[in-house]
Amino acid sequence: MTIEPITGRYLTVTVGGAPRRIYFEEAGQGRPVLCLHTAGADTRQWRHLMNDAGITASNRLIAFDMPWHGKSLPPEGFETQEYLLTTEAYIETVLAVIDGLGLDRPILAGCSMGGRIALQLAALHGHKFSGFIAIEASDFQPAWYDIDWFHRPDAHGGEMGAALVSANISPFAPEAERWNTLWMFMQSGPGVFRGDLSFYTKDDSLIARLPTIDTRKTPVHILVGAYDLTCTPEDARRTAAAIPGATLAVMEELGHFPMSEHPEGFRPFFVEALGKMPQPAARAA
Amino acid sequence: MIDTFRTIQSQLDATPHLQRLGRLFSETVLIEVGGAEYYLTFEKGRIVSVTEGPSRKTPWRFALRTDAEALAQFWQARPAPGFHDIFGLVKIGRGRIDGDILSLVKTLRFFKEVLTLARAKEEQAA
Lengths: 285, 126
Description:
The complex is a heterodimer. Chain A is built from twelve helices and eight strands.
């Protein structure tokens, strides 16, 4: 029998003038690292790193399920709403969680849409963070598929979504973790993945903001998997080049969900990224 | 090429979980490889015939159009980026999918996994 060190609790914050009950998990101690999941998934993507004693010995990893995802409920009245995530609501949610948990300038690690919003936060609210690890993160790409396929009554959005995003998983990923990764998409609520992708594929406001990110105050390290069809290495290179001082690592054997699809392959890249972030002593100075 | 599709046919016969996933799928799919046409006719999750075209009389539900070299890479145990998935082929400009996309969407996992039945096994990847 094993009991993992990850603990989960709930907090209620206000977003858009209404309460949101948010599920969060954490493990470890030391400098806070807030982890954001991809579109259509939840905190389980981070569980391998949160169970990694070598990482949690000096890092307090915290991950939360965005409203509508995982164990965070959608807002009251969701049954009549069309879920469409916006940059503004996403930023407000992340900042509300940081305030609610009392986190002091955490490192922000986000993947895919989480990486996109990490870069938005670097541009607009950099002083609230100590650094950014932007994974499978880019300035903008329009959809290379019709996002409406993910939400229609005559096709199963979860099964279809999982079958589509499997295109973004590396053939080097262990089979068990490939399927654990896809399971989250299979479980995603109706229309949620589509609503996330609406944010990801339609808002190009980050492009103009990238040059304003001050990496002397808050370093930005971008990680990208070679098997990522959605945020390709070319997309990530273009993005890194637009941020003065940003650094980039291409992960040749990984895809769009590296911390989830291939934890062992991702670990050294994440450790390297953490090493590029300010140490607590430096932050206090 | 037709031998590879027949291999897929027999592999599918030996893969019960895929037959279960495809139990509602009874359609003909066109695979066009470098201009050559292959028609895979599915019946309740099995391939009941593989025929080579060209044919103007064979109706098909959706089509995947690619080239032999791209498919050879696709069928490697660990394909290079872009060649690892049919949507990768589309994204890198080596494939095109057309026809009744809703039919494909409804059966996406089944169809994708059927096509990978000809993929080399891991131990052959080294």
